[in-house]
Amino acid sequence: MNKEKAYVPKLNLNQRKTVDSVRFPDLKTTKDFPDTDPWFNWLADNIEGNPERFARREYLEFGIGGGLQAVAALIGLEKKPNLPGIKKITGIDIDGWRLDIAADNLNKSSIPYILYQGDAVQWVEEQQERITNTAIVMCLPQAPLPKNTPSDQMNKYSSNADVYHEDLLPEFAKKYNRWGLGLNAAVLGTLIEHIGDDMDVSVVFSGRVPENVIRYMIHDLGWRVVDIAETPEPIQQDPDTDIFYVSAYANESYENLFWEKLSNGKFSPISAEEAEKRLRLANRDRNNFNVYHHVAVWHLEPATN
Questions:
Q1: For residue 181, is it within any domain?
Q2: Would 276 be classed as within a structural domain?
Q3: Quick one: which of 228, 190, 250 has its CA closest to 62?
Q4: Is 283 left (phi over 0), alpha (psi -120 to 50) or beta?
Q5: CATH number reported for the structural domain that contains residue 99 in this entry
Q6: pTM of the prediction?
Q7: CA atoms within 13 A on the CB side of 147
Q8: Residue 26 forms part of a structural domain
Q9: Which of 51-60, 86-95, 158-167 has the lowest mean pLDDT?
Q10: Of 137, 135, 215, which Cα lies nearest the Cα of 176?
Q11: CB atoms near residue 61 (< 10 Å)
Q12: Is the pLDDT of residue 40 over 70?
């Protein structure tokens, strides 16, 4: 793979609230988090159910958000006292307010942690040594705005991640932006050149993106798939995440990207155009927003292994 040097804006990689905190005995469940969305709770359950991936390693998460998955990993290891614990937690997110929530949640653990506000690609590029003995989790946006989005429209977005558009991507990752995978490709393609031994890598992908596209990207960037864990049934689409870009490829022989929940509890597929229409009408309100899609955790390893 021929990759040009990435252009990355100089964001502040500010260290936030690094502490060796005291564990509180009431931390028993990921439901302690303010976001009780089933989408995130399923991700937490998946992480919690695979504690061996995090034992005796450092924990590194790109797009750590409120820290739900990190805490889930800690809870999973608490249930397996025969396994060594996590050595340290490092989290990177572009949104400072999300990191404040993560800090509050991680304060309940005795594990040392460090949180950085900034760009994930830049963080990887600035590492002086190879990343080793680490469990990596990626949960990054998969709906970047196109570069021609008017600046006055960007004001409606509360998250810096929502305006991470294609001009900010390294050249090798831009071809994946039409699928909403530009940022994921940028991190995976950069990370493969900075990792060493004893790694475990898990990436969250939405069912809005066809599986064959994800597989091609993973292979193209020097990785291979170990296994995939998908939600047993579709999860409600986040009403804060735009899906206008899906229509551009949804009719290219791809079906069942979106679903609606019927009165009997079963699911029926709907078109990307219908899903986008419902999203506009919902006006970011989750109530009565009947659009769902699958979510999956892809377990990866370098193709050279």
A1: yes
A2: no
A3: 190
A4: left
A5: 3.40.50.150
A6: 0.85
A7: 8
A8: yes
A9: 158-167
A10: 215
A11: 27
A12: yes
Residue with tokens 């219908």: 274
Per DSSP, 74 falls in state H
Q: How many domains does the chain have?
A: 1
Burial class (CB in 10 A: 0-12, 13-18, 19+), 107: middle
CA angle 230, 159, 30 (to 5 degrees): 45
DSSP 5-25: PPP------EEEEEE--PPPT
CA–CA gap between residue 66 and residue 252 (Å, rounded) = 36
Three-state SS at 39: helix
Structure tokens given for 25: 């005995």
| Residues of the domain holding 41 | 14-236+294-302
Q: How far apart are CA 16 and CA 100, in angstroms?
A: 8
205-259 residue pLDDT tens: 999 999 999 999 999 999 999 999 999 999 999 887 888 889 888 877 788 899 9
Helix H or strand E segment including 250: helix 247-250
CA 40 to CA 84: how far, in whole Å?
A: 26
Give 111's contacts (C-beta < 8 A, 6+ positions apart). Answer: 74, 85, 86, 87, 88, 89
